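Severity: low
Component: inverse-folding endpoint
Summary: output formatting inconsistent between runs
Steps to reproduce: submit the following structure tokens with default settings.
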């Protein structure tokens, strides 16, 4: 599924068209495994110098949202979003939410918390919407004990998004 039809955000550079303001979201920071901030110590490919997003460990307890551009309705093509994620096993949670244009609330469409193994995983979500919408990645950590983290890498968006 990788190819020119997928819009890929790998965070190696700051620029990512679909997540235009991710640098402005408090809580998410772009870093690599050598940053000295605890796990993960590499990106999902095992590269210590490659960049990903993780929750900043400076906050005592935190949640941080990562919001996409506004996407048009999914008429003939569904929108598929594939992403790699790391959720530490004690108190990390990652949610993906859908906010439709006519609604104030965010609908939770996927969630993971307390992964038993500290490792990168991959997931694909599929979105159907008859109206404009945004997708929100919400990371949360309850405590900032050493080693507690939530991270995201390589978010790809299909043509239908």
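Observed output (run 2 of 3):
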């Amino acid at each position: 599924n990788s190819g020119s039809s997928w819009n890929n955000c790998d965070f190696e550079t700051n620029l990512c068209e679909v997540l235009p303001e991710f640098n402005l979201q408090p809580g998410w920071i772009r870093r690599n495994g050598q940053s000295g901030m605890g796990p993960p110590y590499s990106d999902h490919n095992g590269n210590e110098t490659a960049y990903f997003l993780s929750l900043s460990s400076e906050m005592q307890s935190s949640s941080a949202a990562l919001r996409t551009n506004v996407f048009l309705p999914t008429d003939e093509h569904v929108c598929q979003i594939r992403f790699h994620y790391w959720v530490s096993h004690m108190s990390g949670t990652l949610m993906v939410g859908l906010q439709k244009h006519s609604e104030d609330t965010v609908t939770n469409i996927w969630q993971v918390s307390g992964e038993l193994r500290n490792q990168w995983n991959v997931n694909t979500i599929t979105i159907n919407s008859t109206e404009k919408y945004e997708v929100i990645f919400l990371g949360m950590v309850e405590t900032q004990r050493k080693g507690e983290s939530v991270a995201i890498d390589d978010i790809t968006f299909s043509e239908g998004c």
